[in-house]
Amino acid sequence: MTASDRWVASTCGLCYGTCSIRGHVKDDVLVKIEGNPESEIGRGRLCGKGVSGIMTLYDPNRVNAPLKRTNPLKGKGVDPGWQEISWAEALDEVAGRLKKVHDDDPRKLFIQRTTTNTSIRAPMMMFGAAFGTPNSWAAGGGLHCGNGAHLIGGIYHASWSLVPDFQHCKYAIYFGASKGHGAGHVACTNMQQAADARIRGMKLVVVDPMSNFASAKATEWVPIRPGTDAAMGLAMVNVILNDLGVWDAEYLATKTNAPYLIGPDRCYVRDADTKKPLVWDTGRGRAVPYDDADAAGLALEGEYDAGGVRARPAFARLREHVRQFTPEWAEGLSTVPAAAIRRIAREFATEAMVGSTIVIDGQRLPYRPVAAIYFRGAQGHKNSVHNCYTLELLNQIVGAADVVGGALGFNPVCYGHPETGKPWYEPKPGPDGLMVTGTWVAPHLPYPIPDPKHPESMSLGGLFPLGMFGTTMASRDQEELWTQFKLPYRPEIMLNYGANSLLSVGNSDTVAETLTRIPFVVSFEITLTEFSEFADIVLPDTSYLESLDSRPNVPFIFNHPAGQGQWSWPIRQPVVAPEGQRRQCADVLLELVDRIGIREEFNAIANTHLKLDGPHRLDFKTPYTYAEVCDRELKSHFGAERGLEWFREHGVISWPKRVEEVYWRPFLKVRVPIYWEFLVGLNAKAKTIANARGLTWDDAWYDPLPRWLPCPSHEVRDARYDLWGFYYRDTLHTNSFTNENPWLDEAARLDPYSYTIAVNAATGRRKGLRDGQEVWLESPHNRRVRGRVRLTETVHPDCVGVGGCAGHWAKTLPIARGKGIMFNDLLEVDWDHGSPVNLNLDTCVKLRIVA
Amino acid sequence: MATTGRVVSVKFLGFLQRLAGHREASVEVAADATLADLLDALARSYGPAFASAIFRTPGDVHTHLRVFVNEEEAQVTDRIVTGGEAAQVAVLVVPGFEGGSR
Ligand code: SF4
Predict the structure, then answer these.
(1) N or C terminus of chain B with fewer C-beta within 10 Å?
(2) Where are the domains of chain B?
(3) Ligand 1 mean position, distance from CA A401 (Å)
(4) Is the CB of A47 inside a 6 Å radius of any atom of ligand 1?
(5) A677 and A734 share a domain?
(6) Domain identity same for A331 and A217
(7) A677 shares its domain with A766
(8) Is residue A232 lining ligand 1, measured as CB closer than 6 Å?
(9) Which domain range does residue A246 map to?
(10) Is B102 within 8 Å of A735 when comparing Cβ atoms?
(11) Which residue positions in chain A have pLDDT lower than 50?
């Protein structure tokens, strides 16, 4: 290797999978990207997007200098009249306006960001926190992910998401998930692990309206109507508990709240003195606090006198509750045949091998080789909480959670590098003995749940503490709702970090309308997009291949392979130097921190968020560069000799995982809720606040036991709208960010589905449609998009599927422009289409095809 | 909490400054006071909006509350004074600014 011919270890940024890469640089030009085999994150593999990153780096339309709008008029397709300005001029204006807002009311700053195509994420989050605004969201996936799947992943697995234990699982069932077959968290390692699992004989059942990435490699595809996953799941739970009589009594008694006694008011019966939930100790013949009982004698069934009331264990309540959800009932909603539901439930329960154990690394551990995995498809709905809650119960009732072969969270337990013991975190018991995550991607943990309060954020989040983002960040009725809740301010400045919310959130007319109300918009961009048309100042960001970051994969619960193997902590570093006047967003933010006067806040937050300690802690009053912050983070974790210089040379540090980190559930004394008692109190408090402001409320959404609840698309009665529309994440693209990449565009044009509308062949023939025909998709809300039909057997007969998030119109995106379909233009963004539990946006829509 | 003892200097970082109405304050605490005692006293003097920014439910602080003693992060159960030095306590609530996979 010579200075003019070198390989540089770094991290991909073309999706949130953050695979470790090596860039081959010749004469300061990046000529090739490969996977880095020395890192667990990717294990030397790359997807097609990762390889194509070179084309995004050298995109001739990159923004190379700060730009200022000269046309005050803003709108879709309106030319901003960009004028190049100097960094000094740009920062004077941005800092001046931010300082004014900060000194007036910091909540008037609205931060919007993403993780893809841009350099880093932690600095923008820390900046927002230091500034003091609660108004921030990730608009790359917008309201389309997260609120349900991550919440349930956090509550049950102390992790952002889950995968099957690919090394030991024998039977996995995916509900709207593609782990190991598509894009997403630690995608490339999962692909290898899923392929190995297939060779080993793992059976994979994929429940999905479309047979594509996961189903194509599955043992069985089960077509389902969108948004009805909970119906099938509830019927499966019913069959397993009531027809087959299978459950893991020991797991339920010791690792869940299944034995907690529930009174007639649907709440825990509590000990008069300690207020701890009571359980029935059969050995002693009386009710005792949950942490004072003999595990072997805990009652899961029956009815008892306790605390002066008749009470039943939560498990008995659950078992009784699900009796109503017969496979025939579920078939009526989901179209999955009752016989198939019974068979799959039986296969799942049988393969779980309840009671079995296995020896791993000399330790005898529970062995439950089944996993129910849910993600975007199951969760992208108004009913996302109940969908994911139900599906998770499949894992819980057979004890297949974070044990050998089961559903694994992404690394919620880490005891650190052998030489330093860092990073270190593990879940711990919280209120009522229920699990609190050891680390989390968001500071607002999934549990314990804060008391709802009168909302003071743009998303109305305080009133809905189970949600992360709300529709009101960009909804049709945002002003109406803010007025209703007397929000005491309005957004005055938006800082956008690489997100294109025009395409990623919902219909672009609604989003555009909300953006035009914000007086001043600053956007860090690598290329000009539809969003840029609404910006007042554009700042030229570095791409991920020109950036530095000490924590590119958000260690470790966001992007790190689960299961046995190694830990790897890679860095991102510039593979090549930035061209033009591009500056890494992190450095710009640190300059703004000082100009606004929030350095003490920023440094305090950096210390706590990055876990900087000892001599590596930041002094509150000292200015640091972002490289210095990164250096201190690495030294805090791996010792003074392994700072940024060490990582620049080595790229990644790895060490072996311990068995009690991987299969942690039997080792830790934490419980998870099969019965959501906390929803009862939450409902009462939130409803009082909401009703006082005239918001209608439906108690059913806060039932402590799971239900199937309809999305708006299930309630459309107009027979002309006879199809359900949904979009899926195309593995060739990441949201709308990669459409401008010429290699990926070429691949997408060759792919039969990327840029087309998938219509079931029989349905299409019945409607007189032919392959390649141009049609309109129309919603009952008079929204429509145009595209070409692709007739196929791989989509449910009642559905049409659209790939990804394409359909760009900006003139600044000459390759992406006019290609594919912007499905989101069919989506309503308003209160009625959001979840009243976690604010998740509904992303399925009833449609008709107009030729 | 007893009102005789020592005076602690408290700095309100981030949006707590807006809720408190100023950046710094001096608070008298008992000699054996914990940070939780101090937070209780602050919640009482600065009213319900400040209190609900600190406490998740009465008596139980938010998981995203951070307290620093002489710039070092501390637990709310910690006693305030260490080594006989005067303590400067900084209180910060990290707002819910994160989440979602994209
Ligand atoms: S999966 Fe994502 S992070 Fe990995 S190579 Fe592909 S685009 Fe890059």
Answers:
(1) N
(2) 5-93
(3) 27
(4) yes
(5) no
(6) yes
(7) no
(8) no
(9) 149-413+669-681
(10) yes
(11) 142
Quick one: what percent of chain A has pLDDT higher than 70? 98
Q: Contacts of residue B100 in chain A, CB cutoff 8 Å?
A: 137-138, 140-142, 145-147, 150, 468-469
Whether the Cβ atoms of residue A665 and residue A588 lie closer than 8 Å to each other: no
Given this model, what pLDDT does residue B101 score?
Answer: 28
Say if residue A156 is exposed, middle or buried (CB neighbours under 10 Å; 0-12, 13-18, 19+).
Answer: buried
Question: DSSP letters of A623-678?
Answer: ---HHHHHHHHHHHHH-TTSSHHHHHHH-EEEEEPPHHHHS-GGGS--BB-SS-TH
Read off the CATH number of the domain in which A826 is found. 2.40.40.20
Measured CA angle at A810 (ends A807, A814), to 5 deg: 85
Place of tokens 């239900």: A707
User: Prior bond to A469 cis, omega within 30?
Assistant: no
- Burial (CB count within 10 angstroms: exposed 0-12, middle 13-18, buried 19+), residue A676: buried
A191 and A291 in a single domain? The answer is yes
Q: Report the predicted TM-score, pTM, of the whole model to 2 decimal places.
A: 0.96
Sheet-wide strand order for A20-26: A5-11, A20-26, A29-35
Instruction: Please tell me the distance from the alpha carbon of residue A524 to that of residue B15, in angstroms, as a whole number.
Output: 25
For residue A438, give the 3-state DSSP assignment: coil
**A816 and A733 in a common domain:** yes
What's the pLDDT score for residue A116? 65
Residue A138 corresponds to which tokens in the numbers above?
């990730």
Q: Is B93 left (phi over 0), alpha (psi -120 to 50) or beta?
A: beta
What is the Cα–Cα distance from A460 to A547, expressed in whole angstroms?
35
Judge: domain B5-93, CATH 1.10.760.10: no
pLDDT at B2: 43
> Predicted confidence band at B82 (pLDDT cuts at 50, 70, 90)?
low
Say whether B73 and A607 touch across the interface (CB within 8 A). yes
Burial of A122 (0-12, 13-18, 19+ CB in 10 A): buried
Report the DSSP beta bridge partners of residue B73.
B68
- Interface test mutation site (partner A, options B12, B66, B71, B102, max chain A beta carbons within 10 A): B102
- Amino acid A276 reads K
Mutation for testing the B interface, residue in A444, A459, A501, A554 having most B CBs under 10 Å: A444
Residue A77 is assigned to a structural domain of this protein: no
Q: Which residues of A touch B47 (CB under 8 A)?
A: none
DSSP A239: I
Q: What angle separates helix A599-609 from helix A122-131, to the nearest 10 degrees?
A: 130
Query: Do the bridges between strand A220-222 and strand A203-207 make them parallel or antiparallel, or are there none, so unpaired?
Result: parallel
d(CA A448, CA A155): 9
Residues of B at the A interface, defined by Cβ within 8 angstroms: 11, 13-15, 17-18, 52, 56-57, 60, 62-64, 66, 68, 71-73, 90, 92, 94-102
The 10 Å Cβ neighbour count of residue A360 is 16
CA distance A77 to A309: 66
* Inter-chain CB proximity A619 and B71 less than 8 Å: yes
Q: Which helix (H) or strand (E) holds A83?
A: strand A83-84
Q: A675 and A750 share a domain?
A: no
Amino acid at B9: S
Of A660, A681, A702, the residue at which a domain comes to its end is: A681
CA of A41 to the centre of ligand 1 (A): 10
Asked, for residue A162, whether it belongs to a domain, the answer is yes
Give the span between the Cα atoms of A405 and A169, in whole angstroms.
Answer: 4
A33 lines ligand 1 (CB under 6 A): no
Which tokens hold the place of A184? 């997403």
For residues A731 and A775, state if they share a domain: yes
ipTM: 0.89
A326 and A399, same structural domain?
yes
- Of all residues in chain B, the one with the smallest CA distance to A443 is B64
Verify whether the Cβ–Cβ distance A448 to B66 is below 8 Å. no
The residue of A111, A432, A596, A620 whose CB has the most chain B CBs within 10 angstroms, and thus the best one to mutate to test that interface, is A620
